[in-house]
Amino acid sequence: QWPFHFLAIFWSRARFEDSVPRIVENPSDLIVSKGEPATLNCKAEGRPTPTIEWYKDGERVETDKDDPRSHRMLLPSGSLFFLRIVHGRRSKPDEGVYTCVARNYIGEAISRNASLEVASKALCY
């Protein structure tokens, strides 16, 4: 009876312990048209629930959480939604390599890289 009792206590305590975040859905490469909406998916698990931040080419991405006028929105799931892809001759603010980072007080998890490319007119039929 002793080993069973010990295991039951250990199991019940372990269930409620906090855990390091882990990425359960990584973003995928995207090719999108200028002006169109797009979503880079990212989902993470952990205890406590991790916060998600996005990085493009190593720099933190500004979203509607930072600036309500931003065309980039951080969805409750952790995904990054673009209201419209911005792309010009001189400025290509949305094109690049993205990663999402999930953090809680125990640690962090980094997703795989995903590239967002803007389709050239030559590719659009």
From TrEMBL:
CDD domains named among the record's database cross-references: IgC_1_Robo
GO CC annotation: axon; plasma membrane
GO terms for biological process, alphabetical: axon guidance; dendrite self-avoidance; homophilic cell adhesion via plasma membrane adhesion molecules
Alphabetical list of PROSITE patterns matching this protein: IG_LIKE
Entry keywords, A to Z: Immunoglobulin domain
InterPro entries (alphabetical): Ig-like_dom (IPR007110), Ig-like_dom_sf (IPR036179), Ig-like_fold (IPR013783), Ig_I-set (IPR013098), Ig_sub (IPR003599), Ig_sub2 (IPR003598)
Top-rank lineage group of the source organism: Eukaryota
One Gene Ontology MF term: cell-cell adhesion mediator activity
Annotated Ig-like domain residues: 21-117
PANTHER family, A to Z: BASIGIN RELATED (PTHR10075), ROUNDABOUT HOMOLOG 3 (PTHR10075:SF37)
Protein name in UniProt: Zgc:77784
Organism: Echeneis naucrates
